[in-house]
Amino acid sequence: MESEPPRDIFDENLKRLLEAAREDDSGFQSRLLAAVREEVRRERSAMRRRLVVRGLWAAVGIAAVLMIAWSLVSFSPKSVGRFQPVYGVAEVVDGGASRTIAGDESIRAGCSVRTLSGSKAAILLRDGSKLTLAPRTVVQIADGRRGPAVELKAGAVDVEAARQQSGKKLVIRTPGSRITTLGTVFSVQLSTKADGTRKTRVGVASGLVEFESGGHRVQLPAHTEGVAEEGQSPEKRLMSFELNEMVRLIRGTGELAARLNQKAGSPAIIQCKDGSTAAIWTAVYLDDLRETGNGQRSLRLKSPASRARLFTLDGREIPARAEGRDLRVDASAFGSGVSHDTKLILELQDVKGVFRTDGGITWLTLPPGASDRVTLLQFHLPDGARIERLSPEPVASTRMLNRLVVTVAGEINGLEVIE
How far is Cα 27 from Cα 349, in angstroms, rounded to an integer? Predict the structure, then answer.
């Protein structure tokens, strides 16, 4: 059985009502019915248009809400790493509000982290780099297109930079300076002088760092440091006090020999440790190293040392190992541009036979003089040491690093430590 087609109840009731009211006037009834139906059709059409417009406005509103939500997610500060306390507590300043952080938590781009007095903290960046913040240090971290950027506002930070991907760099900024690395271990210290001038010091333990200040750049390899006052060009130094002093003694010996019309000897630093052993830094020449084949060279020591190391004048360490009195050196590490008269710095630790102690007095006997040479020698003695007699007379004497540092100029070739 077929079902009846759906009927318009409103039209049926209206027709029934009109038929009852005017059964005798079919023409009027038809015209009235047609007029009412047309009015109802127009009203329904207008209602449908209003519903469509309302739907469109609702869709636009939903789309706007979604776009706002997307923009908030897309442009909200991202996490650049994680904070890890070493000891003590620190503060994070985000949007002008500061709060204390004492445990592991995420660090967002743009916020500042401040370690308090007696506190130390680490920040692990997303690229794998690690920042260790000294007490009373303030850093702010941004996440740039070319890699993380850290602004050091106060204090000191040790950096273990992860090897960066192609086109990426880790940048450390201080007032007036910029330090760029591709992967290395270094430290950055920001200090303020009495006149308000700020000074940046960069020390490189391994790898290579570019240090820019005052419109000038220097490259700092391992065992070197750069120092620059705000707006000034950076000055390159060696990190080790003894290596720095050796470079200065080598330069000073050359200038003194030229002034006296003599040959320059091999300057040295002799540090008295306990009256029986000494630590020695002395200048040697590449030609002093005997070739042993297979890219190796060797140096024969007069006395064995607990440790022997070899450095270029720019602070680069040459791989070497001590075997009794023999020092084996990897000559391939010298690279190109070296000659037989290239100067090197030899470091020897715990050398016996240099000093002798008798009756509470420590003696040092230098080798016989050489009338055609002049050499600067520097002695590092305990801070409380008293010099009874020293010949020749000192040309300089000062106290630094809890030592009495005395420099003499003698007509000798140098300290005899190699055969």
Answer: 128
**Cα 26 from chain centroid?**
100
- How far apart are the C-alpha atoms of 36 and 409, rounded to whole Å? 125
Check: CATH 3.40.190.10 for 79-239?
no
Please give the pLDDT value at position 76: 43
What are the counts of helices (DSSP H) followed by strands (DSSP E) for the chain?
A: 3, 32
Q: At a CB cut-off of 8 Å and minimum separation 6, what does 106 contact? A: 79, 81, 82, 83
- Single-letter amino acid, residue 342: T
Give strand ranges (E) for 239-372: 263-264, 268-272, 277-285, 290-293, 296-300, 307-312, 317-318, 320-323, 326-330, 343-352, 355-358, 361-364
Residues paired with 198 in a beta bridge: 192
Q: Given CATH 2.60.40, say whether it is the number of domain 242-410.
A: yes
Closest of 243, 244, 205, 245 to residue 221, by C-alpha: 205
State both tokens at 401.
């690093």
Q: What is the pTM of this model?
A: 0.62
- Pair of tokens at residue 274: 């306990």
| Residues 179-213 pLDDT 10s | 998 788 999 999 998 888 899 999 998 888 999 99
Q: How far apart are the first and last CA of the chain?
A: 124
